[in-house]
């Protein structure tokens, strides 16, 4: 059994979309989390979590996190961005990221989380000329991690690993085949010194076969090894 020091989500904790039902959904989700409250949980806002002013306020109330924030844990720095209402990374989030990374430039390991993979088109095209990547490159970000599309994909662009994570509970799309990146999983990161080992752990039966892979086993179209 994994015993992480803390947990980071990639967004979409509730179904959302309706200001009238969001409180009930957050309360139901909070009950679901009760057995895991001994873990520190850091939430990333998804489009099912924030879609209006009221839903943003509810997100902060129940997640106990602001829409964007950062924190340090030992030698690692983590940044959570809010692109819940736009496929593009908003200008204010880019400005926040740049300022935050500048303030924590001395941290040797840096991870950036967002719900939507705002970077995916440019990484598919292997194009480093976009603002988010330029900021990440300037300040030595190692991992850019997102959810939203529910498919396990991996891109290496100028030494930065971009990861679209597999579904952690949302429906599977397209072929629904493991080798295409469609499966249910969680990931465990182990940090030793300035190195990171990331295990992508598929759920066991009846939801999967319990296979364990690493980012290097995946590519822009699914499993490569």
Short description:
With 225 residues, this protein is α/β, with parallel strands linked by helices. It has helices at 22-33, 53-63, 91-103, 120-124, 131-138; strands at 6-8, 40-42, 69-73, 76-80, 109-113, 143-146, 153-157, 160-164, 185-192, 195-202, 212-213, 218-219, 222-223. It contains 5 helices and 13 strands.
Description of the molecule:
This protein is of the alpha/beta class and 225 residues long. It has helices at 22-33, 53-63, 91-103, 120-124, 131-138; strands at 6-8, 40-42, 69-73, 76-80, 109-113, 143-146, 153-157, 160-164, 185-192, 195-202, 212-213, 218-219, 222-223. Helix 3 (91-103) runs parallel beside helix 5 (131-138).
Distance between the termini: 26 Å
Shape: globular
Low-confidence stretches: none
In spatial order, strands of the major sheet run 3-4-5-6-8-7
Our Rg estimate from Cα atoms comes to 17 Å
Order of helices and strands: EHEHEEHEHHEEEEEEEE
Distinctive features:
3-stranded antiparallel sheet
Q: What's the arrangement of secondary structure elements?
A:
Layout: E1 6-8, H1 22-33, E2 40-42, H2 53-63, E3 69-73, E4 76-80, H3 91-103, E5 109-113, H4 120-124, H5 131-138, E6 143-146, E7 153-157, E8 160-164, E9 185-192, E10 195-202, E11 212-213, E12 218-219, E13 222-223
Parallel strand pairs: 1-2, 4-5, 5-6, 6-8
Antiparallel strand pairs: 3-4, 7-8, 9-10, 10-11, 12-13
Helix pairs in contact: 1-2, 3-5
């Amino acid at each position: 059994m994994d015993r992480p020091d803390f947990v980071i989500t990639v967004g979409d904790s509730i179904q959302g979309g309706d200001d009238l039902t969001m409180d009930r959904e957050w309360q139901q989700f909070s009950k679901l989390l009760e057995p895991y409250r001994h873990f520190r949980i850091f939430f990333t806002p998804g489009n099912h979590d924030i879609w209006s002013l009221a839903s943003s306020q509810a997100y902060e109330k129940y997640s106990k996190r602001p829409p964007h924030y950062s924190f340090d844990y030992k030698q690692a720095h983590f940044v959570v961005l809010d692109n819940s209402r736009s496929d593009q990374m908003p200008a204010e989030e880019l400005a926040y990221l740049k300022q935050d990374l500048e303030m924590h430039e001395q941290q040797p390991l840096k991870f950036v989380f967002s719900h939507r993979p705002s970077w995916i088109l440019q990484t598919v095209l292997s194009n480093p000329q976009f603002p988010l990547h330029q900021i990440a490159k300037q300040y030595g970000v190692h991992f850019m991690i997102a959810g939203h599309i529910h498919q396990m994909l991996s891109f290496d662009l100028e030494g930065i690993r971009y990861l679209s994570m597999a579904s952690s509970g949302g429906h599977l799309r397209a072929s629904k085949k493991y080798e295409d990146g469609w499966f249910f999983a969680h990931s465990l990161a182990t940090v030793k010194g300035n190195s990171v080992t990331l295990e992508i752990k598929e759920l066991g039966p009846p939801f999967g076969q319990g296979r364990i892979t690493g980012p290097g086993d995946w590519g822009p179209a699914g499993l490569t090894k």
